[in-house]
Amino acid sequence: MSIDAKIPAGPLDKKWSSYKNTAKIISPANKRKFKIIIVGSGLAGASAAATLGEQGFNVECFCYQDSPRRAHSIAAQGGINAAKNYQNDGDSTFRLFYDTIKGGDFRAREANVYRLAEVSANIIDQCVAQGVPFAREYGGLLANRSFGGAQVSRTFYARGQTGQQLLIGAYQGLEAQVAAGTVKMHSRTEMLDLVLVDGHAKGIIVRDMVTGEIRAHAADTVLLCTGGYGNVFYLSTNAKGCNVTATYRAYKKGAYFANPCYTQIHPTCIPVSGDYQSKLTLMSESLRNDGRVWVPKRKEDCGKAPADIPEDARDYYLERKYPSYGNLAPRDISSRSAKEVCDEGRGVGPGGLGVYLDFGDAIKRLGQNVVAERYGNLFEMYENITGESAYERPMRIFPAVHYTMGGLWVDYNLMSNIPGLHVLGEANFSDHGANRLGASALMQGLADGYFVIPYTIGDYLNTQFGKAKPDVNSAPFQDALAAVKARTSQLLSIKGNRTVDSFHRELGHIMWDNCGMARTKESLTAAIDKIPKLREEFWKNVNVLGKGETLNQSLEKAGRVADFLEFGELLCRDALQRNESCGGHFRSEYQTPDGEALRDDEHYAHVACWKFEGENATPTRLEEPLSYETVKLATRSYK
Q: Does 485 reside within a domain?
């Protein structure tokens, strides 16, 4: 089956401008005739809602949080990339494009990535105009710092709370349109299904999380901006509410799920401290600008206080292995290197699952005040959680699930294979390949919402003139509504002996042990055998407390975990079928003699797209070939 990405013709650096010059547009008077549903109010959703509302469309935006300001985008810490070249250090649109393609291990679509790099500079101008308080140098100019996988300083930041400040900027734009009447906000409302009318996405089924009411909403097109699926591993840096339900429901209605095995393990997180934990905490990658990562050279020194280990007994392993990038090697490489030294028995802290991130040299060089100005809120967070001061003792860090590069397949217009279903931000697969570079998630979310979808959505809506408006009383909506109500009743009726969390935790162990930082054919086969058995037990023995007609967090979690129990199997199938290592997908059978990822460009230079074939049926794997006209496929090297 052919998959058409609808990439414009012409030179790479002219595709987006050519597209905009010839794009189908909609007049202001006609924009008022169209309704758009946006699910999610993080950076991608809030920016899209604000922009489309300001253009004159009728927008309804849904989020399960009590306010759009609590979307998980708020948790992003380190910064946002843009090819401004303010430091005059050789940056350019092409260099940002190439760093992103290379960082993704040559498994992303050229045209989409170049567009992302091209519009990145506009994002900074937009956010500065909104009043986002980016860090500035002494003279008042915007400051930059470096992130992994780059040899230039292109990351704009607001201390360690960049996501929060960017979200407030997008939120104020969103609320301005709410006040203007072009956007209607539905908070505390969770999407539970997608509605198709004659094969087109025309609405959603939602549950009011306060009253329990399940209802249908209709529109001319649907935008999913619902983030990633990292919580399939149970322990991750994601907020506890983050889930796969919206995108997985769309997958079960026919949307292709692309590259689900591309999951990112972030190298700088606070290590697990006990079985009681329900989530993990990120320590920003920006810390690796000034922090140095090391472990003892000798296993015998691991139990010593770090101050008692002399300099010549320390292994600064990233600087040793990757001298060109040092501590700013990309996330996938840095995470595997941490796992490697811990597997050798040289890890520090409880269980030997930790490495040091040491700011001693930076404090001597810059002074504690400067380090506090750059990272103070992160140091406070670390001390609140661990009881240790990173000014006095190195941080202990260890890799953890953080981001997912896979997502629903989209074409150049950000539309899935289901007509009318657009997917933005982390919820789609399009820009990061097999590994996302640091500070690029915020860039993609705002690029999609502010600068891409306002142009591309007209391509679909222009086909809808003269078509009947979707009606929530029609059969497709009523059938979907009945199915959601039946599933909700089924969850409440089981009354078994196990909590929802116990199933989620067990699934997380299966996923992390068998499909985590390293995967093998044997481990993935084992996971694919275990997950259906756990899923079967879930539907027989889960105990969902309370009723459906009221606030019920147990019910909310049950629905999300039920989807994770299906999606986890799909993720493992994708990892099993991709017989190579690339980026965050590391198959232990496929590595170079020095332990680096070994790609197979002849057989796997493509996007793997999974098509749902029915309950309990094996999904079909389709392929979108990745052709590189501008860059040459090469083995990644950060040495």
A: yes
pLDDT score, position 94: 98
Same domain? For 591 and 490 the reply is yes
For 224, phi and psi rounded to 5 degrees? -100, 120
Question: How much is the pLDDT for 273?
Answer: 87
Task: Among 345, 378, 399, identify where a domain stops.
Answer: 399
As a 3-state breakdown, the chain gives helix, strand, coil percent values, each rounded to 5, of 40, 15, 40
Q: How many whole angstroms separate alpha carbon 63 and alpha carbon 125? A: 27
Catalytic residue list contains 393: no
The DSSP secondary-structure symbol of 89 reads: S
pLDDT for 275 equals 84
Residues 485 and 390 in one domain: no
pLDDT tens readout for residues 178-219: 999 999 999 999 999 999 999 999 999 999 999 999 999 999
3-class SS of residue 613? coil
- Please count the CA atoms within 13 angstroms of the CA of 102 that sit on its side-chain side: 20
| CA–CA gap between residue 439 and residue 420 (Å, rounded) | 30
Q: Which amino acid is at 129?
A: A
Distance of CA 636 to the CA centre of its chain: 22
Cα separation, 80 vs 102, in Å, equals 18
* 619 three-class SS: coil
627: Cα separation from own chain's centroid: 24
Query: Residue 347: which domain range?
Result: 266-399
Question: Read out DSSP for 118-176?
Answer: HHHHHHHHHHHHHT----B-TTSPBP-B--TT-SS--EE-STT-HHHHHHHHHHHHHHH
List 95, 331, 535, 636, catalytic entry = 331
**CA 612, CA 188: separation in Å to the nearest integer?**
29
The pairing of strands 214-218 and 407-408 is unpaired
Residue type, 227: G
**CA 384, CA 281: separation in Å to the nearest integer?**
11
Do 101 and 631 touch, CB atoms closer than 8 A?
Answer: yes
Alpha helices in 462-499 (DSSP H): 475-493
Query: What is the enclosing helix (H) or strand (E) of 376?
Result: helix 368-386
Assign 117 to helix, strand or coil.
Answer: helix
pLDDT digits 0-9 by tens, 417-440: 999 999 999 999 999 999 999 999
SS3 534: helix
- The type of residue at 258 is A
List of residues 6+ apart from 553 with CB closer than 8 A = none
Q: How many domains does the chain have?
A: 2
Per residue in 530-573, pLDDT (tens digit) is 999 999 999 999 999 999 999 999 999 999 999 999 999 999 99
The stretch 333-355 carries a mean pLDDT of: 96
Q: Are residues 495 and 593 in the same domain?
A: yes
Contact call for residues 83 and 92 (beta carbons, < 8 A): yes
Residue matched to tokens 């049926």: 617
Q: Share the mean pLDDT of the chain.
A: 97
